Each structure stands twice: as structure tokens, then as C-alpha cells.
Amino acid sequence: MSLYDLNKNMVPPDEIARQREYAALVRTVLSARFDDPPRAFVHTYGCQGNVSDGERMKGMLHACGFAFTDVREEADFVLYNTCAVREHAEDRVFGNVGALKPLKNRRRHMKIALCGCMVQQPRVTERLQRSYPFVDLVFGTHVTHRLPEFLYRLYCTGEKVYEILQSDGVIAEQIPVSRDSSFKAWVPIMYGCNNFCSYCIVPYVRGRERSRSTEAILDEVRTVVQAGYKEITLLGQNVNSYKGDVNFSGLLRRINEIPGEFIVRFMTSHPKDCTRELIDTIAACEKVERHLHLPFQSGNDRILREMNRHYDREKYLSLVRYAKEKIPDLLLTSDVIVGFPGETAEEFEDTLSLADTVGFSSLFLFIFSPRAGTKAACMPDETDRAEKVRRFQALEKLQAQHSARIAEAMIGRSFRVLCEEESRPGLLTGKTSGSMTVEFPGEADRIGSFVTVRVTERAGWTLKGEIEP
Length: 469
Description:
Layout: H1 3-6, H2 13-33, E1 39-44, H3 48-63, E2 67-68, E3 77-82, H4 87-98, H5 100-106, E4 111-116, H6 122-131, E5 137-139, H7 147-157, E6 161-163, E7 184-188, E8 190-191, H8 202-206, E9 210-211, H9 214-226, E10 231-235, H10 248-256, E11 263-267, H11 276-284, E12 291-293, H12 301-307, H13 313-326, E13 331-338, H14 345-358, E14 362-367, H15 385-410, E15 414-424, E16 427-431, E17 437-441, E18 450-459, E19 462-467
Helix pairs in contact: 2-7, 10-11, 11-13, 14-15
């Protein structure tokens, strides 16, 4: 039985082969038009899943004969990989696209492309066609694997290409990847979402849940580990609902068995599917980091029902208690929405108390932003902006206290840290197993390697330390 038979969402191998043929044709076309390889500028907005998609698009662009530049004004091809989660992200994209018009007037040969979650929405595509006619290529989330074909059509016909497919989504394997890092790898394990949280646009633009085969994931992890990658981050809108030959806990155990010196992180976990089995797996797997990002969004049961989150306050707290019992050094982070439609001051106090009870190392806080097409966008909302800001600041103040307490408790302790970047000459940064950032003296040639760092002090939410001999 073929892989396509096993998963009706799988793009057939002959279609992937067809796209490789298009890539070769595009290389031929571009080499005839440019003396040097044309330069592509690729900018991704939004989540780590989008970043991973961007790396695959860069892989296809490289196969088509493009080089890359970080300077938009030097680019022959500009690609914006967009996000639709918040209105602010859409506003930024439209602003940056508008700023390209005078640049394109000066560089007539330059091509402009938009893709990703934002353009999967019909209202956005209509606005682009109406108000941004200088955009050459627009394609949605379900046809990304066909980028070489779209480029061939664009460069050979000179006509604009708009490809937005409404579907439950696909899985495309054997896509080339041009990774942004030489030692940190994003590895998607599933795509889409079935949860339909009332505030979230993701299921509408990313399609339904669909999981990559276990063996395809293991093959990718083996490949990057053999290439020297030290940190593997598994990605999914809800990794806990992964359904391959094994469940998510089984997948973590299989990855943990792969030989090599590397660590494993993952995001994002949905509380409704987070199990004691998963907690036990984190505790048992030495390569899986002691960090769990578990968005609770609200501490009030009525608001959680309105959000369509499928768990209540006690289930969340029970899971946290079990996790802290099994993994005493586990650090928890979370997402919170403040000012959800209809949230009262008393209901917000439940959110404050949950955050205080758990004691997160950090929180990602958001004031509710309505997304057109979601159920929450139509809910009555009588709380004014000033009150929402006040609640946001109250939660922010509480979290600062917990972050400071946790950081203080780490002083004097030693941690294995992957050197990630140079914050300034002679100073490196990395993360502890619990995903706390630490800064320490070190030379740039250590980047991409593991060191043991003893924490000596804290500065705000950042730890400072020294490499142990």
C-alpha cells in the first residue's frame, strides 16, 4: 500500500517530481535572463510553523536558481510569508507591501509574492487584487509545494498568478529545505487544527489536522542530527493530537532513541489533549527539555467554554500538579488572552489567581483581537480598551514577580546550554533546559555547541552566568 493510500491528504510522489521538473525549467529561464543568480528576499511573519514553511519555500527557491539577500532593496524577487492570527500582523503586511510600490517602479523586473495564512482568506485576496495590482504572485497555504510551477508561469507568461485552494489541507514530503540556522532545526510533525477555538482563525486558513508519517519525521530528524544539528523543535498547532504509527508520546520516545548529541523541544501543547503519559515521557527522555508550553488562555470556566477550549480550570491545574510532581525542575510557560468578549472583572480575577497558583516562568499576554470569520468576532464586547489594558498590566505585574522569583532560584545552579548567538562581542546567549535565557562570556566560535553554565546573577528576566571549565 502506498503512502498516498495511507493518507488521503498526501501529495502524490509524481506531483513532487513534477515540481522538481518545474524548478529545473525555472533555473534555465533565470540563467538566460540574469548574468548572476537572481536574489530573493524572503520575510516570514508569525509563528514557528510559518518560519518552518518559509525554510521550505527558500529550499524551493534555491532549487529554482535563486540566491538570497537580507536587503529588500537589492532583491529581484520579494516573498512575504504572512500570518493571520492578529489584525496587527495583517496591518504590517499591507503596510510593507504598499512600501514596495515605489521600489518596484525603480526596479521594473522585480517580482513581488505573498503567501501564507493571511492570503488564504478571500477578503484579503480581493483586497490585494483591488488595491495592490503590482503584486505578481499570491498563493495560499494548501498549494505551497507548487511554488516552482507558479514561478515558471510567472516568468514565462508575465501574467499575475493567483492560486488559493480551499481544502482540508495536504502533506507534501520531499520538499527541499534551506534552514535559517546551522544547528537549530524546525521539524513539523503535523499541520492544521480541529479545535475551532472561538477566537482563532487557524482552522480556516490551515485546514484540518493531518499528521506526517512517523517514519518521515524520524527520517528528517536523523538527517538533521547527522548534519550536526543540536536542537530539534517539533512543530504542530497541537502536537498532543499527533496521530501517526504512534501517538505524540511514542514519537518523543522514538526520537529520543536516535543516536547523537541533541536536545528536543516541542510546541504547542493543547491542555485538552495533554496527558499524564506525555508528562511521564518528558520525565523519562533525557533528550527532551524540561519545559512545557501549555496555553491556558483564561482561568475562568465560563470564559473557557465561550472560547471552546474543552477543558476547565481544575483539569488544567490537576495536570500542572502532576507535572510538577513528576518533573520537579520543569518550567511552564503559557499564553493568555485578556479581555475576551464578555469577560467580567471577577472572571479576570480567576485568570490572575490561576497564574499566581501555577507560577509560570513566563507568559505571552495578548489583549483580545477579533478575527473576521471567527465566532468570537461576533460576540458582544462591552469592556472598553482602557479596562482591558488595566487587566493586562495587572497580569503583567504579577508575572514579573514570578519570573523574578524563578530566576533568583536559579542563581548558583549549573545548566547545560546550547550557545545560540552573540548578544554583543564576547557575550553569548543560550537557553537552559527550562527555556530560560542566560547570557555568559564566550567567543563566537562556541556558537552551535553545548557548554555548562553556572548562573551567577539575574538582570530582569535574563540570567547571567559563566562557563564552567
